[in-house]
Amino acid sequence: MPELCDLQIHVNGQQTFFLNQIVSKFSARLRKIVKQEKKKTQIKNSLIDIDDFPGGPDGFELVSRFCYNNGEITVTVSNVSLLHCCSIFLGMTEKMTTCNLLKQTEIFLEGMFYWPWNDVLVSLKSCESFFSYADSCGLLQKLVCSLLAKVAQNSDVNLIASSSSSSSSPETASGFRLSSSTKTTPESNQSIKPSSSSKSWWFDDLTILSPKIIEKLIKTLGAYGTDNNSLILTKFLLHYLKTAVHSRGGANLSSTEYGGLADTAVHGVTLMGKTAFSCRGLFWVLKVLSDVGVSRNCRSGLENLIGGLLHQATLDDLLVSGRDGAVYDVNLVVRLIRVFVNSNGVAIQRLKKVGMLIDKYLSEISPDHHLKVSKFLGVAESLPDSARDCVDGVYRAIDIYLESHPSLSFEERSRLCRCLNYQKLTLEASKDLAKNPKIPPRIAVQALASQGSHFKPAKESFHESLITVKTDSRIVLYDKSGTDGDDNLSQQNVDMRLNLQRMQWRVVELEKVCKDMKGQMSKLVKTNSNKTKAITTPQAPDRVLPRLC
Fold first, then answer.
1. Per-residue pLDDT tens for 29-64?
2. What do you get for the CA distance between the two ends of the chain, in Å?
3. 191 to 87, 116, 175, 343, 354: CA distances (angstroms)
4. What distance in Å separates the CA atoms of residue 344 and residue 340, rounded to the nearest whole number?
């Protein structure tokens, strides 16, 4: 056996094959290498290294079987691409022997345009492991053109017609004629995959292909990158990227592999814009592409498009998943609001609609423990004051935030309330704010004071027609205008003003009591410390702390 295996061929640094001289009978490249090795050394079992072999050891094993089987092998759609590339690499032409491997694969590939749909997909899929060589030898281009021809045969949209290379002449770059004869041949009609009349019938089937092959397909159509002006291709790319993300369990895709396809999809979306995509559809596009690694410029263009339609958004649209531990992407919403606010000619009705939407969004994100005060304020203050007729929604969001973040300092709680316009609080919200123990007392006083000034000018003759006198804890109202004042001022407004005054006085009294209590406590601590130092000192009588009532 050793004398029969006089060749050692190491393929791609992965595996060594022990062969005899029969392989050089079919391969011009191997024959040349063997002659060169014989001149260098007289060792029989010389080692030959072959790098960049198509398909690696698997491809070389198929070629070896072909040689040892006296030039015979079963060619199928699953191995024809590999055998064809290997035969070109090794120079297995008719000059070496008749009906060599290259000739057999060429004959098989001539019927490519009559293959069934699935056979074309299988042959394309097999090129992934040796993509570069299949592309350089032109095989990949031929298979892609065959695939596009079948899509055109069974679709209303002629994708091939949009390709600059194929529309200029009846011959494609690969040398295959894409004429009407391919549509009228009976065998051709039987080779098309049975499907519905939908334009997207081929979307799911192409998801099995690698991003390199899809990129080649898009480039063949002349619609790659900024050249993409096809709605059907844009929808296909979005479907392809969404399927790729789901197949990896939601993990982020490599921007190196999928970045070009993502940017191509974004260019198509921004070009079609509002005519082809709704606001919800654009948010869906953004969520899909967030996991792909789209470029910053393309993402910015997509956000500008969404920001202009923010008045059509819903709460579910804004709830985009965040990163780095955050539940929601708050920065995205802030950017969208800025785009919307800075748009030219924003109607006040649309502005107020967005204001109500953002108030709901604040209530939704407030329980997030990772949400910082600055982020909360960034969302709340991104809209102008005219966007809200009432700020009760903002107050409810603040209350939820304080409930979910009990460790906030006094300064942080005070800073959180700066986004409130107290004059736009309803009476019920003001009452709740005054009684809320999580709200700093001074904030409650400011809110009540603003409410008092808000109700005073309700009637211009209020101060002239009503005199309030406080005596012995009783409040007496004198109406100088007589019965005419009853028509101008309702009893409800009077009661509201009195209640607000009482609550304001009560808050002030509570602040004074708390201040006195702190002073008493500090004196008591000092007294106790003095007692421990001087035991002989007569014991001073205990002082009674003030009662909070």
1. 999 888 887 777 655 566 888 999 999 999 999 999
2. 109
3. 28, 4, 21, 53, 53
4. 9
What does each C-alpha distance from 466 to 88, 197, 430, 497 come to in angstroms?
Answer: 105, 79, 24, 12
pLDDT digits (tens, 9 = 90+) for 256-310: 889 999 999 999 999 988 888 999 999 999 988 887 878 899 999 999 999 999 9
pLDDT tens figures, 353-392: 999 999 999 999 999 999 999 999 999 999 999 999 999 9
Cβ atoms within 10 Å of 107's Cβ, excluding its own? 11
Give me 349's structure tokens: 């009705």
Pairing of strands 7-11, 15-19: antiparallel
What is the maximum alpha-carbon separation in the chain? 131
The residues, any chain, with a CB within 8 Å of residue 351's CB and separated by 6 or more, are: 311, 341, 383, 384, 386, 387
Angle between helices 139-153 and 117-125 (to 10 degrees): 150
Q: What are phi and psi of 8, to 5 degrees?
A: -120, 115
Residue 477, strand partner residues: 468
In 460-487, which positions are buried (b, 16+ CB within 10 angstroms) versus exposed (e)? eebeebbeeeeeeeeeeeeeeeeeebee
Q: Kindly give, in sequence order, each residue whose CB lies less than 8 Å from that of residue 380, ignoring residues fewer than 6 positions away.
A: 358, 362, 394, 397, 419
User: Is the pLDDT reported for residue 24 higher than 80?
Assistant: yes
Read off the tokens for 126. 């097999």
Length of the chain: 549
Say how far apart CA 151 and CA 154 lie, in whole Å: 5
